[in-house]
């Protein structure tokens, strides 16, 4: 919503605890022409994974979030994989009155 894009959501896992967000257009990569020489392992848009993981933790869900495909590395689309790990204990995060 804040980036002005709407990802497609795919879920191919039978246990329904994994899904992917497919970004046809990645606004963070719009102004990057190519990765610097010797830095091919750099994941320029890894910031998105941290934002998604942090947002899920705010609603008490622990998840593993990582890039599966990246247009900057020659893939057709940008794909972010999300795996649900567990529901966090809400009591730990409540304020004491």
TrEMBL record:
Entries under InterPro entries matching the protein: Bet3, NO_sig/Golgi_transp_ligand-bd, TRAPP_component
Alphabetical UniProt keywords: Endoplasmic reticulum, ER-Golgi transport, Golgi apparatus, Transport
Record GO biological process: Golgi vesicle transport
Stretch forming the signal peptide: none
Primary localisation category: endoplasmic reticulum
Localization per Swiss-Prot or TrEMBL: Endoplasmic reticulum; Golgi apparatus, cis-Golgi network
PANTHER family: TRAFFICKING PROTEIN PARTICLE COMPLEX SUBUNIT 3
Family: Belongs to the TRAPP small subunits family. BET3 subfamily.
Protein name as annotated: Trafficking protein particle complex subunit
Species this chain originates from: Marmota monax (Woodchuck)
């Amino acid at each position: 919503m804040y980036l002005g894009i709407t990802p497609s959501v795919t879920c191919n896992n039978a246990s329904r605890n994994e899904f992917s967000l497919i970004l046809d257009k990645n606004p963070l990569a719009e102004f990057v022409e190519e990765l610097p020489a010797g830095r091919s392992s750099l994941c320029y848009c890894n910031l998105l994974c941290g934002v998604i993981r942090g947002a899920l933790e705010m609603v008490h869900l622990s998840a593993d979030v990582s890039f599966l495909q990246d247009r900057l590395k020659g893939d057709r689309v940008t794909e972010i994989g999300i795996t649900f790990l567990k529901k966090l204990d809400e009591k730990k995060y409540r304020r004491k009155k």
